[in-house]
Structures are given as structure tokens and as C-alpha cells.
Amino acid sequence: MKSFKLIIALLFISQITFAQSIISLINRADAFFDTMDKGKFEEAHGFFDESVKGKISADELKLFWLRLGNNLGAYESVNGAQNKSQGEYYQVTLECVFTKGSQGFTFIFNKSEKLIGFFVAQTTTEAVYVAPAYADTNLLTEKEVLIKFAGGQMAGILTTPKGVNSFPIVVFVHGSGPSDMDETVGPNKPFKDLAAGLAAKGIGSIRYVKRSMVYPNSFVKTFTVKEEVLDDAVAAIAIARNTPGVNKAQIFLMGHSLGGMLAPRIATLAPDLAGIVLAAAPARKLSDVIAEQNRYLYASSGDTTATMKQQFQATMNEIDRSKLLKLGDIAPDSLILSAPASYWIDINNYDQLASAKKLTKKVLVLQGERDFQVSVQDYNIWRTALAANKNVSFKLYPDLNHLLTPQKERGTGLQYRTPANVSPKLIDDIAIWIKGK
Question: Which of 45, 174, 256, 402 is catalytic?
Fold first, then answer.
């Protein structure tokens, strides 16, 4: 018999009004999974808000539940994990227990307690975020903003420096996958660090929740980086442009990882940008970068068993499939590495190096040598390709990883379980570059 356990000690309450509805929201999420477990998929579909019902069907819910059962076994129980508010939306994360293991899921509700979306949550960690020494809240002001698009909106934070009448501003653009406004990975929050560090130097910023985190069911069929990244970055730039106190001649964009790869493309959509920062940005095709990541992690694992070899080869075969440039016989919504064919065709036909070469605005390329996700090879490609462009500057940091935090070795993803902060030297360099001629 299914049980439900509420772990009060792990509830993170950010607003009194939200605190009053925590039990109700967790029970609502619990009831949704219970309804699916009973095979009542039409009834489960009714848990969604009208604005998103058309984006996911009862049959898709059934398929999802069957696949989940195949991977994790029979459903047994659900435990409350953590909860927080994000603008007008409420987020509830539950640990769901199956016969073969546990899996976390995050649910996004609106104020009417209707589901806006749900997705697999990142593995939780006992470590917590630690604010850096340079994060002086007395030097900044934060205000909520909304990044709007035709189908909804995401919460964001406008950070402005106190006591500055005319200041530069930076819009942060995330890397791959769903992400909150701080680009949280375990106990690490690189965008939060950057916002605080830059504000202390008289520079404002905008960071926002990535659309795929709040509206995951909008990304189940065909889509491209336009919906995933570009449209919302342009909307955030428009907010920056109309923010009182912002020097409109000093609006910048900082793209991290995939966001850095797409920064030159975004710059063509927002020609009034003063400059762009490419932080840990792939210079090669995304498929090639993913392949390199997998080869590195496979070698680092030291696991030479036949099973591991088979899994590795299967992954590499799937990566090869992602290199397509046109549809051919494949349907646009055919999934490859969890993204549709339409996504891969769009990003494979994009040449970030050629786009960056055409820019006349300032460009800053940043890279950490201890980054195992996007390697120094990409940095060197950027440097070679843009060597003749006088508007481009380069910075290589020997001790920084993919999250732009100091590390003692290159390592693997295990390093992201330990709290670390964005390098103050990197923040200094960005501030100097922004304010320089």
C-alpha cells in the first residue's frame, strides 16, 4: 500500500503565503502520482492548468509512467523533499520510491494549485550554498522581473548596484538543460555569485529561470534553441534596455557553456548589445563536445567491464546519430539524446565561429583549464579563429572548472557536490573589461 511521508525538517519556506499552502501542494503532487499509479491517466491529465493541457496528452502521461515503471520498477511511496516559491509559481520536489530505487521529481504549480509542469529533479545533496566573501548585500538591490513569451512567463531577478546613477548591465544565459535563475548545480550557484560580485563593482545584471525548467512539457515534441534559449535572452535584454539607471550604451550578455556558444547568435538578434562574454563556450559542434565528455568520463571511471563498454558504445552511437544536418527519413520529433531531431539540425547548422567573426562589438572569451565539460581545446579554437579580430579578448584560468570555480584537479561531476564560488579574479576581469574602452 502506498504511503506518504512529510519530512518537515527539509521544507524550505520563503514566504508566509507559500508556507500556508505547502501541505496542500505536496498533497496535490502526491495525489497526481497516486492517480497515475492507479492507471487513471485522463484524471491525471485534469491536474494540469488549461494553459498547458494541450501540450501534453493523457496518452503521453501513460507512456511516461510505463517507461518509468520499466526503469525503476513498481511504485511504492513518495516522500516530501523540498519546496520553494519562484515568482508566481510554487515548486515542490518529491522523492519517489520504486522497487528498483528512488527518483526525485519536481512539480511546478500556479497559485490555483494547477500543474504547469513536472520533471525529473537533480540528485539532492547534503551540502548547501555558501555565499562568497565578495557578496555584500549592502551594495546591491534585487527586484523580481518577469521574462514573458506567448505561452507564459518565468521569474527573474534584476540586481542593481546601490548609489550608482548610470551603470552597465549584464544578462546571464544558461548552459544546457533545465536550470533555475542561479544556474544551480548541487550547492553551487554561479549566476548568483556573478550577480553579487558584479554589483559590488557597480554593474547590474538580470538572471532568470530557464523556460525548460518551468515549462518542461513544452519541450516534448519539436523545438530548437529558439524556444530553449534565444527568445528569452532577447526578452531579458529588452528588460535591461528599459530598466531605470541602466546605461543603454553598456548592455552586455554573458553566455555560459551552451549560452556562450549561442551568444554570437543572440548578438545578431540584439544589435545594440555593447558586448558579449563567452564563458566555457563550445567552439566545436555540440555533438563533438558531448562525445569528448563521455570519452573522458569513461576513461576516468576505470570500469572496464563488458557491461560498461556496451553502455559506453551505445552512448557513442547515439551521439553519432545527433550529428544530422537535415531530416531525410527521420521525423522532426524523433528523440536523439533526449532532444528532437529538429533541435540537432538547428544547432548543427549553426557556425558560432563564423558568427563571432562578423561581430564588431566587444567579445570576451573565458575558459578554465580544469573544465572537463568544455575543454581548453575549444578555447584554443576560439583564439585561433578570432586572432585577427581586435575587438576580442581572451582569458584562460589554470585552476577553474566548468562552473568557473577554483578546483585542485580536473576531476568529474563529483566536484559539483562541494560548495564553491565563482573566482573573484574572473569577476574582476569581467568588470574591468566591461568598463574598459
Answer: 402
Active site residue 371: yes
Contact 365, 392 (CB under 8 A): yes
Quote the CA–CA distance of 182 and 383 in Å, as a whole number.
29
Q: How far is CA 128 from CA 114, 152, 189, in A?
A: 30, 31, 10
Distances (CA, A) of 404 to 191, 296, 337, 434: 10, 19, 26, 18
Tell me how far apart the alpha carbons of residues 6 and 23 are, in angstroms, rounded to a whole number: 8
Closest to 97 in 3D by CA, of 4, 216, 9: 4
Closest among 395, 402, 404 to 424, alpha carbons compared:
404
- CA 53/CA 17 separation, integer angstroms: 27
The phi and psi torsions of 203 (rounded to 5 degrees) equal -120, 130
Go through the domains of the chain in sequence order and give each one's CATH number: 3-120 (3.10.450.590), 137-286+340-435 (3.40.50.1820)
End-to-end CA distance of the chain: 68
Nearest to 276 by CA among 258, 264, 284: 264
Low-confidence residues of the chain: pLDDT under 70: 1-23, 77-87, 100, 122-126, 437
Query: What is the residue type of 293?
Result: Q
Predicted local distance difference test score (pLDDT) of residue 118: 85
Strands 75-86 and 167-173: unpaired
Nearest to 80 by CA among 180, 190, 5, 173: 5
Q: Which helix (H) or strand (E) holds 395?
A: strand 392-397
Tell me the per-residue pLDDT of 259-284, one tens digit each, with 9 for 90 and over. Answer: 999 999 999 999 999 999 999 999 99
| Residues in Cβ contact with 208 at an 8 Å cutoff, skipping those fewer than 6 apart | 145, 147, 154, 155, 156, 157, 181, 232, 236
Instruction: Establish whether 57 is a catalytic residue.
Output: no
Active site residue 102: no
Region class of 87: left (phi > 0), else alpha (psi between -120 and 50), else beta: left
Q: Which residue in 30, 182, 371, 378 is the catalytic one?
A: 371
Instruction: Point out the catalytic residue in the list 176, 179, 257, 423.
Output: 257
**Cut 0.90: pTM above it:** no
- Does residue 333 sit in helix, strand or coil? coil
Q: Which three cell numbers stand for residue 281?
A: 563556450
